[in-house]
Design brief:
about 200 residues; disordered N terminus; mainly alpha
């Protein structure tokens, strides 16, 4: 019996699963990256707060920073990929938002990219200040570009500040999404959750 062909639409939808972003909503790659990175960033923030208080005698003294650095490099790669994916895709329709809300949403959405990039670069500079490469889960190494043993302190201070600012922006973003979903009934959250603009 011949296999049924995969149906594709102009929006890149295969068998009802939207791949590319369209005016109707976000595709699977965007949604997976959005929620996956959100969980990872929150986890990294908690891990960072926890590991700075570890003593030399803790069994996690070396392990926790190694995990933090490894996930940080992976997140940097995903951030660059998501930025490129965002550029080549259509933007979902946001006409149900007011002009001020659309402007605020754009500022927050695009503000995440330079903020996260600066956060990850400062973490990289802090970790490689002594010239040692970052070992990413023993899969591959990311070499140090600049060796400056005094750089870890200012880079670490910047990293901590940027981490706090990132979480503050995450909270603002989450509150705005909940407001649109449950107060305005606009279906904005639904587009990122299910790919559809319908309120589910």
């Amino acid at each position: 019996m011949p296999t049924s062909p995969v149906l594709m639409t102009a929006g890149g939808e295969a068998n009802g699963m939207m791949i590319r972003d369209t005016s109707a909503g976000y595709g699977v790659p965007t949604r997976v990256l959005h929620w996956g990175m959100a969980v990872a960033i929150l986890g990294m923030y908690w891990l960072g707060l926890w590991m700075v208080d570890l003593t030399y005698y803790s069994p996690y003294y070396q392990l926790a920073p190694d995990i933090h650095r490894s996930i940080g490099i992976i997140l940097l790669t995903l951030l660059l990929g998501r930025f490129l994916w965002r550029i080549v895709n259509d933007k979902p329709d946001d006409s149900d938002l007011s002009k001020m809300e659309r402007t605020a949403a754009r500022v927050v959405h695009w503000g995440f990219y330079p903020l996260l990039l600066a956060l990850m670069i400062s973490g990289y500079l802090m970790s490689t200040a002594d010239g040692r490469a970052i070992e990413v889960f023993d899969w591959f190494s990311v070499p140090a570009i600049i060796e400056n043993k005094g750089m870890e302190k200012p880079a670490g201070a910047a990293h901590a500040l940027l981490a706090h600012l990132t979480i503050l922006l995450v909270i603002v973003h989450a509150l705005a999404a909940l407001k649109h979903q449950f107060y305005d009934r606009s279906g904005v959250l639904g587009r990122m959750w299910s790919g559809s603009s319908s309120n589910r």
